Amino acid sequence: MFEVTKRSALKVIAAAGIVASMAALPFTAPAHAESPFHTGVWQLNTPEGPRGLVVSDWLVFEDGLPKRWLYRRAGTNDENQFDFFSRTMGDSGYTPVGIRVYRTGENSMKYTLAPKGEEPVEVSAVRLSIPNFENSCLSVEKKGKRFFGNWVGTTGSKLKKLNVGKTKMTIDGEAREITIEEVRVGRMGITEGGKPVAFLTDAGGDYAVLQWFKPGVTVEQMRNKEREILDFASEEIVRNPGGDCDRQIASRLKAMK
Question: Residue 2's pLDDT is what?
Answer without folding.
Answer: 27
